[in-house]
Amino acid sequence: MFVFKKSLLLLSLLFALVTGAVGWAQAGDDKNAQIKINYLNVCSPSDTEKQELGAALGRLPAKIHFAPDFEVSRGRTTMTEPPEALGSVLGGSQVVNNDNGPSNWVRIRREFPAESPFVSVQYSMSVDAGGIVETLVFRSREMKDVIQVSMEDKVSAGDPAQVLKSDTPVDRVRIERFGKSSVALARCQGADQHAYDALFQQASGILSRYRAALNVRTTVPADLRRLGVGGTKDPEAKEKSTKPAQPPADKKP
User: Fold this and answer.
1) Order of strands, edge to edge, in the sheet holding 146-155?
2) Which H/E stretch holds residue 184?
3) Fewer CB within 10 Å of terminal CB in the chain, N or C?
4) Residues 176-221 pLDDT 10s
5) Over pLDDT 90: what percentage of the chain?
6) Closest CA to 159 of 132, 134, 177, 196
7) How many angstroms separate the Cα of 250 from the Cα of each of 60, 243, 246, 247, 253?
């Protein structure tokens, strides 16, 4: 009986050692796994990519007609750690640069009718110490070819309501393709991008129309004020309005 128990103990110990060795081997394989990173030429896409960007923008709904469903949301986000997808690339000990502080944002989403080739369009404005960013995203109903089209603009500073009084031109366009890498175009300082002016103008016109259709100029500043962003008055004017009136000087006889 003692010999049987001793043999069973040795077998258990051997099984644990083999299992541990397999685990360490798998862990070693994971560490040596290759990570593929695709770099996008956003300053000067090829002629083929330029045509794809133009075609994708041309397919966006020109006649704006929404379904009844919609969503308006607001919030504040503070990022202190890198996204999980970047953890293996940046390393878990690194953190995202948080010099811009928290970001306050407002999103407006509207659904398209069932017969539309697009599911929804979403506008968002985010405000932080680094500036104000507007983003417009169209999501395709069909999971083939181009599945998402987005455009973006950024200003370095300003009150959101004042920024929305004018149509800031788009400085970035991006399409997500099914089974392929993304295609993007962005304004690059110092680069000759005259060949892409028509694309930037086309995207800026789309963003301008959807600002109006989504009632952005009314909804977004009001929700940002609820987050404590924008709507501040001139402090000197406020001081004048709260300062008690001086009594009239006595008139000499």
Assistant:
1) 70-77, 103-111, 118-128, 131-140, 146-155, 172-177, 183-186
2) strand 183-186
3) C
4) 999 999 999 999 999 999 999 999 999 999 999 999 999 999 999 9
5) 61
6) 132
7) 73, 21, 12, 9, 9
Predicted confidence (pLDDT) per residue in 167-180, tens digit: 999 999 999 999 99
Helices (H), the chain: 2-31, 47-58, 84-90, 160-164, 197-213, 216-226, 235-242
Q: Under a CB-based contact definition with an 8 Å cutoff, are residues 149 and 118 in contact?
A: no
Q: Which residues contact 128 (CB under 8 A, 6 or more apart)?
A: 100, 101, 102, 103, 104
> Within a 10 A sphere around the Cβ of 90, how many other Cβ atoms?
14
Q: Which residues neighbour 203 within 8 Å (Cβ) at sequence distance 6 or greater? A: 57, 151, 170, 173
Q: Are 107 and 122 in contact (CB under 8 A)?
A: yes
Structure token digits, residue 180: 């392929």
Token look-up 């685990």 returns 23
Q: SS3 for 111?
A: strand
Q: How far is CA 167 from CA 96, 134, 210, in A?
A: 31, 11, 11
- How far apart are alpha carbons 174 and 56 in whole angstroms? 10
Half-sphere exposure of 203 (CA within 13 A, CB side): 31
